[in-house]
Amino acid sequence: MTVYNFSAGPAVLPTPVLEQAQSEFTDYKGSGMSVMELSHRSSLFDAIIKDAEKRLRELMSIPDNYHVLFLQGGASLQFSMVPLNLAQNKKALYVNTGSWSKKAIAAAKELGNVEVEVIASSAKDNFTYIPEITPDMIDQDAAYLHITTNNTIVGTAYKSIPNAGNVPIVADMSSNILANDYDVKDFGIIYAGAQKNIGPAGLTVVIIRDDLLGLYEVNEPMLDYKTQAAANSLYNTPPTFAIYIAQLVFKWLQELGGLPEILKQDQEKAQLLYDAIEKSNLFTSPVRPDSRSLTNIPFVTGNAKLDQKFNVEALAAGFENLKGHRSVGGMRASLYNAFPKEGVQALVTFMEKFEKENGGL
Amino acid sequence: MTVYNFSAGPAVLPTPVLEQAQSEFTDYKGSGMSVMELSHRSSLFDAIIKDAEKRLRELMSIPDNYHVLFLQGGASLQFSMVPLNLAQNKKALYVNTGSWSKKAIAAAKELGNVEVEVIASSAKDNFTYIPEITPDMIDQDAAYLHITTNNTIVGTAYKSIPNAGNVPIVADMSSNILANDYDVKDFGIIYAGAQKNIGPAGLTVVIIRDDLLGLYEVNEPMLDYKTQAAANSLYNTPPTFAIYIAQLVFKWLQELGGLPEILKQDQEKAQLLYDAIEKSNLFTSPVRPDSRSLTNIPFVTGNAKLDQKFNVEALAAGFENLKGHRSVGGMRASLYNAFPKEGVQALVTFMEKFEKENGGL
């Protein structure tokens, strides 16, 4: 049985990447060592981390006045690091578009010395859309405006980045980094947990504009962007194997044709599924059409028992991790870059069959 | 050419572990998915993390009133987390036995609200021994006594754990965890970066006595031991693949005979090298005999040019990462659990040959 992995993260990785990593797993480039066994100060690992950064810069057209950091702790640690580094005793603006935004807001509030203002929210409508942000909503004295560009759980995404004037935009891009046409220049900080479009869990990529380094004293060295940037992500031992897998993923993306090509594929995959949902008399998307994510696509029957039946049968048919997040229910297909189009086609066929068998037209 | 990897970390891993991980790298237990692709909420990963914890508890005889946490950020993040969680507006005691102790001390001071007292230090003697700690040196009102049980760079280790009365001992055990006969009950907290005796870089193991959870408000959720313990290390996505490799390493250790057996092997390996150094007229150990580490063994000729010649020739002969730390110079052999005895024998033979060729007896 072919298995299709719709996991929201850690998620499916490109088959050629897994195969290459497997083939050199115990002997990297004839060194007699696994990448996991390389000293992080060795020339072999130095080449890996530098090449990973170079390729990510090329893929995302990251300007020279931005640092690229390979850190640990996931987006959850960024929720604290961002306000610690940028907004002590200042105001920080947040847009609330779901669970992860709420966690970011809560973490900023918990610091106790940040004035947190939520300037827009779609909470009262179950986060089914991205609220409009207009320039007049942005206090130009704020330290930053924080947005969650793609909301993994509810399946919404920003189609364009708000105009915040001179206020830097800080973006949690965990679930749609490398799957969008945003311009890095529109952001002050972009951060992303790797476990969706980049590589294995345990690696966090941070892209930060140089003028945002060192604005405040941060009392924990590991949480200080300036310290991490000065050490080129080697302040302490980084997650070396995860960085190596990320390098292979970046190389795979470049050989495929870079972001324009993968974005085209992502759009085709998403369209296939959204079209099937629109056509269906059983399944609906809870998300407003203008806010729909390319990477995370929830759908429901409106009947919890039927959703459960679908999930049980889908799992038995090789569709892994389709069950919606426990906070939402229903189904959710995460179609990250490495997810194959055949898997979407197979899902659509399965949905049509299920609909026929369960009282659909 | 056989390659022997003397890296201080990330370090050599057991060959059977690497081979098993390689064999199931693209298809874990017939799931059709790599371990890296498993959701951290899946039953397959749940079994991995629970089994890893169970095996570590068995190996180290960890009592039930201790939590085992699988975190990120390395020992360097623990340097801040320990005082944040245990000593806000209190006194914390430190023993200074080298670079890593100094970093731990500096991080505690940087918080600004911890009264840091260094109760003993071997700094004036280049950290060549572990200072004696007697009960009268311990202020019983202190929040904890911090020690670095093994000093990777200078090659010293505590042969026994000091008696600190009722003051909890917090130990950075990064470089000799699972390679000692300490008793977990003698510690309040043990922490260790995985990249020496546990698994790949990017995983940090913390063993914490339950009464030390939740003593203070910690304003960064990811840095709060209580939050991490309450979530069983799943507060956010953990470094899943690194935890899986750790599980395999723990299993390998248990099948070998557990800590008594590996400690016997470690002692034999270390003795081989220390004996060769003692016998030599060229090489000396800078470390006082009563403080010598089993896992990290520095040696020098006393002549920087000759050290360099040795390092060049050793590298050409397949001895990787023997060069001493940049802060110490000379040579350093890190003989972690997975390092094979044949590698030590080969090194000793190489040292004898080098000595003959370079004016030795």
Automatic annotation (TrEMBL), chains A, B:
Report the domain of life of the source organism. Bacteria
What is the enzyme's class at the highest EC level?
transferase
Reaction(s) catalysed by this chain, per the record, are: O-phospho-L-serine + 2-oxoglutarate = 3-phosphooxypyruvate + L-glutamate; 4-(phosphooxy)-L-threonine + 2-oxoglutarate = (R)-3-hydroxy-2-oxo-4-phosphooxybutanoate + L-glutamate
Q: Give the transmembrane ranges.
A: none
The molecular function terms in GO held by this entry are:
O-phospho-L-serine:2-oxoglutarate aminotransferase activity
Pathway field: Amino-acid biosynthesis; L-serine biosynthesis; L-serine from 3-phospho-D-glycerate: step 2/3
EC number(s) on record? 2.6.1.52
In this protein, which residues make up the domain named Aminotransferase class V? 3-347
Where does the UniProt annotation locate this protein?
Cytoplasm
Residues with N6-(pyridoxal phosphate)lysine modification: 196
| Entries under PROSITE patterns matching the protein | AA_TRANSFER_CLASS_5
Q: Does the keyword Transferase apply?
A: yes
Q: Does the keyword Zinc apply?
A: no
Q: Name one Pfam family in it.
A: Aminotran_5
Protein keywords: Amino-acid biosynthesis, Aminotransferase, Cytoplasm, Pyridoxal phosphate, Serine biosynthesis, Transferase
Q: Which residues hold pyridoxal 5'-phosphate?
A: 75-76, 100, 152, 172, 195, 236-237
Record-annotated residues binding L-glutamate? 41
Relay the cofactor remark from the entry.
Binds 1 pyridoxal phosphate per subunit.
Cofactor(s) needed for function: pyridoxal 5'-phosphate
Family (UniProt) = Belongs to the class-V pyridoxal-phosphate-dependent aminotransferase family. SerC subfamily.
Question: What's the stated role of this polypeptide?
Answer: Catalyzes the reversible conversion of 3-phosphohydroxypyruvate to phosphoserine and of 3-hydroxy-2-oxo-4-phosphonooxybutanoate to phosphohydroxythreonine.
Q: How does it assemble?
A: Homodimer.
The record ties this protein, via NCBIfam families, to: PRK05355.1, serC_1
> What name does the UniProt record give this protein?
Phosphoserine aminotransferase
Species name: Candidatus Enterococcus myersii
